[in-house]
């Protein structure tokens, strides 16, 4: 009998496989996603995100989780000579390849499930956009352990996600499923798919990550997006938040908790003892 978590994850992946050809229309506010006069506010906030990423300057060896069609892969390539793009949807990776065709020698494409993928090396930066809100709450803490295992000592994280707001809800109304953690979305193939959508304010995101041992600054761009950046917490002090600027049962437990290969585990002198330590 298949694990219910497996089934839900497979359904979410299936949705993004089907949606890959139209994803850029959503991001660019084109076609069915054109909202007329409200488009400019959306695009202005996206420009603010690009500025924040430039200030962060994601140089070195960069891992992009859930890289999708490459909207932000393009941005990352402005700052670094090497990007590894991980995504579970081959259709999304194909769109990414098309977008970055002139620079594919700088990109390593990996089709894989972030909850089971074994990173072959450590990275200077881990980046993800519009992904964290799709992480199942049951796997949230383990996902962040896995992020920690993907980073070199002192490595950094930059993330972008949707912001919970009345304006955002009016722009793209969602169909709730009744559990406050997922929504039902109609895909281009005519089928409806249930996907996780757990939105957090900058304050909420900061708090939950602080409790997990991360020191991330989190901010809203306005009404539609948030961004956060930071590292593993070493001193146990938080940073600021605000506006501005079954089949997998045991496998999920092992991988989603972020248990690392011994050869990649940092020494106690390199990182906090909690980083990538085995869990009971």
Written account of the structure:
- By secondary structure, the chain is of the alpha/beta class.
- The chain has a single domain (39-175, 198-262), classed as Rossmann fold (3-Layer(aba) Sandwich).
- The protein is 32% helix and 23% strand.
- It is built from nine helices and eleven strands.
- The chain has helices at residues 4-19, 23-28, 39-56, 73-76, 90-99, 140-150, 166-171, 202-211, 249-256, and strands at residues 61-65, 82-87, 107-111, 123-129, 151-162, 175-176, 182-186, 192-196, 214-220, 225-232, 241-243.
- It has an eight-stranded mixed β-sheet, sandwiched between helices. It has a three-stranded antiparallel β-sheet with strand order 6-7-8.
- The longest helix has 18 residues, at 39-56.
- The chain is globular.
- The relative contact order is 0.15.
- Mean pLDDT is 86; it is low at 235-240, 243-259 and 261-280.
| The first-level CATH class name | Alpha Beta
Domains counted in the coordinates: how many? Answer: 1
* CATH third-level topology: Rossmann fold
Name the strands of the widest sheet in spatial order.
Answer: 3-2-1-4-5-10-9-11
Strand content: 15-25%
Summarize the structure.
The protein has 280 residues and is of the alpha/beta class. Helix content is 32%, strand content 23%.
What are the SSEs and their pairings?
Blueprint: H1 4-19, H2 23-28, H3 39-56, E1 61-65, H4 73-76, E2 82-87, H5 90-99, E3 107-111, E4 123-129, H6 140-150, E5 151-162, H7 166-171, E6 175-176, E7 182-186, E8 192-196, H8 202-211, E9 214-220, E10 225-232, E11 241-243, H9 249-256
Parallel strand pairs: 1-2, 1-4, 2-3, 4-5, 9-11
Antiparallel strand pairs: 5-10, 6-7, 7-8, 9-10
